[in-house]
Structure formats: C-alpha cells, structure tokens
Amino acid sequence: MEEKGFTTIVLTPTPEFHYMVGIPRSVGIGYPYGRLLGDAGDSEGQRNVLMATLEALGKTDTPGSVEYLSFVWPEEPKDAKWHPPEISPIVKVRLEEIRQARKEQK
C-alpha cells in the first residue's frame, strides 16, 4: 500500500516486533490484546486512542517509525480481562528489548 501512496500505521502492544517484520509505521500502546482501542463501552477513551494514533500517523513521514502512546491501562496486566494467560513467544524472546525501547522512548 505504501508503494501506491497510502501511508499506513499499526496500533499494537508489540511495536518492536512489527518493526522487525517490516511494518512501515507502528504505534505502541500498553493495552491488552483484543482491546487496543480501550475497554468495551468506553467510547471517549477509544476515540482518544484513535485520535492519538492518527496524530502519530500525521507526524511520521518516514517508514520504520515507532511511536509510543502514553495511555495506561487501568488494571494491572495480570488482572486485565482477555489478557493472554501466557506471554506470546515473540514477546517472550524480545521482552528485555521491548522494555529497553519503551524506557528510551519516554
């Protein structure tokens, strides 16, 4: 799509992985899988995440960009509903790298 002139961005809890596989632009968010825009019924929160993602898209003009949104999920990750019971294999392998990248972005 990028080659055809469409600028794209992916909202993800694992932007480093998306960068590694060649997704042109990623926006990281510390929300559980399955609820990247926010909790069900929280239309204001979902809109805020969506608008911040689109804002990031407008600021990133080069492929390979990784941005981090400052939203914080209101529950501890271990308590979040729909959070996978086990960390995904790619995240497990790259966990320290992910933590370091997030630290550097702040």
**Mean pLDDT over the residues:** 84
Number of strands: 3
Strand order of the largest sheet: 1-2-3
Number of continuous helical runs: 3
Task: Provide the domain count.
Answer: 1
Succession of helices and strands: EHEHEH
Explain what the structure shows:
This protein is of the alpha/beta class and 106 residues long. The chain has one domain (2-105). 38% of the residues lie in helices and 16% in strands. It contains 3 helices and 3 strands; from the N terminus they run βαβαβα. It has a 3-stranded parallel sheet with strand order 1-2-3. The mean pLDDT is 84.
Fold topology:
Blueprint: E1 10-12, H1 15-20, E2 25-30, H2 43-59, E3 65-72, H3 89-105
Question: Could you provide a short overview of the structure?
Answer:
The chain is of the alpha/beta class and 106 residues long. The protein has one domain (2-105).
Name the descriptors.
alpha/beta, 106 residues, 3 helices, 3-stranded parallel sheet
